[in-house]
Amino acid sequence: MAADLVLKTARLILRRWRAEDREPFARLNGDAVVMRHFVGTLTREESDAMADRIARHFDEHGFGLWAVEAPGVAPFIGFVGLSVPSFEAHFMPAVEVGWRLDQPYWGYGYATEAARANLADGFGRAGLREIVSFTAPVNVPSIRVMERIGMTRDPVGDFDHPRVPEGHPLRRHVLYRISAP
Ligand SMILES: CC(C)(COP(=O)(O)OP(=O)(O)OC[C@H]1O[C@@H](n2cnc3c(N)ncnc32)[C@H](O)[C@@H]1OP(=O)(O)O)[C@@H](O)C(=O)NCCC(=O)NCCS
User: Fold this and answer.
1) CATH architecture, range 7-179
2) Which of 86, 99, 147, 150 could make an SS bond with 80 (beta carbons 3.0 to 4.6 A apart)?
3) Ligand 1 atom nearest 112 alpha carbon
């Protein structure tokens, strides 16, 4: 894919990452509220390593977790995009749609708007047949995004996330799916 490819929506620009995104990315990854449905917050080093992995993923797959810019609001509000999970599960191989926004940008529909653009790009340009999403059932805001963009829960899809320690309350996950139109 061209390095300057962007996805545009009514209010957002989904673009490749820049060096300046790392500082606000580390801040949101270090925020215990943003990360309350994950095993823990990330250090600056872990956050930078994730940004590196995201950049490599774009090169490898031609799609990825886009840096989300809200023109007139903020140059970086978080990420929304498609990724190939790097763990084994019953629904693999698969492509996941995911999102993580900084707190000030919750409640405006930005995640939903950006996710819809990713479904269109994934089913269009990338030619995917299906996209999945998953989270712990307690992550209601994330499940609401999945439902708003038309995903439906796989009734037999629940699974234990292999990256979450056994016995941890966030280990059990629900699985949502959407097929290409
Ligand atoms: C998951 C997450 C992105 C959801 O954020 P969100 O703000 O609830 O979702 P959206 O951006 O789609 O916004 C939807 C909300 O904005 C409201 N809204 C306001 N204007 C809107 C508009 N123009 N369009 C759609 N919704 C709008 C909706 O009513 C909804 O609020 P509600 O849930 O109280 O009804 C956010 O909670 C987050 O980053 N969490 C931490 C990271 C995380 O857990 N990621 C998921 C891991 S699986």
Assistant:
1) 3-Layer(aba) Sandwich (3.40)
2) 99
3) 12
